[in-house]
Amino acid sequence: MTAERQPVCFTAHGNPMNALGRTAFARFLVRWGPELPRPRALLLVSAHWEQPRLRVTAAERPDTIHDFYGFPSELYALRYPAPGDPDLARRVQALLREARIEASLDPSRGLDHGAWAPLLGLFPAAELPVVQLSLLAGVPFQRHLEVGRSLAPLRDEGVRILGSGNLVHNLARADLAEVDVPPAAWAVAFDEWVKQRLDGWELADLAAFTELTPDGRKAHPTPEHYLPLLVACGAADPRPRVSYPYEGFEHGTLSLRCVRMD
Known about the structure:
By secondary structure, the protein is an alpha/beta fold. It has helices at residues 24-35, 73-76, 86-98, 113-122, 142-151, 185-199, 203-207, 209-212, 216-219, 227-236, and strands spanning 8-12, 41-51, 54-57, 103-106, 130-136, 159-165, 242-246, 249-250, 254-255, 258-261. The chain has ten helices and ten strands. A six-stranded mixed β-sheet has the order 5-2-6-1-10-7, sandwiched between helices. The protein has a two-stranded parallel ribbon with strand order 3-4. It is globular.
């Protein structure tokens, strides 16, 4: 049976407390999952795993990593017991190598909260196999577009490529005591700048965001929450139909905008 071609998606994950399912954004994720074509497996690119060279999880049963501190104990009790998929991990590695991008398999790495927190809403039964791909540290941002392009064939193999981060992510300027506060004007401006470039499918501009807009470095003092978007865009290229199933902010400086690319 032919696998259904999958859209590429980018999801926000924001505050880890969203994983408890009590926010409007968490309730959206529960609705969004069933609206999308059902994949056979998931390839997740999270803001919370950067490596000098690409790594791919290859565990049969990846652990749930609680890579945060200072939160209520109920958050640390959460588990996402999805199976891994070593065959898919090897397929990812092979596609990357065809594009002359080196990647190694990691049989012990689990799923960080950038992966399992949104997946708890999108696929709460944790029945779909999940493989996680790292980001690349210290390379030109354009490289992440190339990584995504090399993985595009997976879409026709029933694999959902899902980036997880935030289109605006500045914790130093966030109001962490309050969730629903008006977003900062510069944060709204950068979020809209990204949307306009996605609408026009200006990938070179998206990769040069720190140079082309004065709000880029303020929106991302470090780039890791933005880079999963570039991997997703590369996988969706050439120009797809782009939609935004969720828009908004939390804590004033964390964008919750999600992107679907068909």
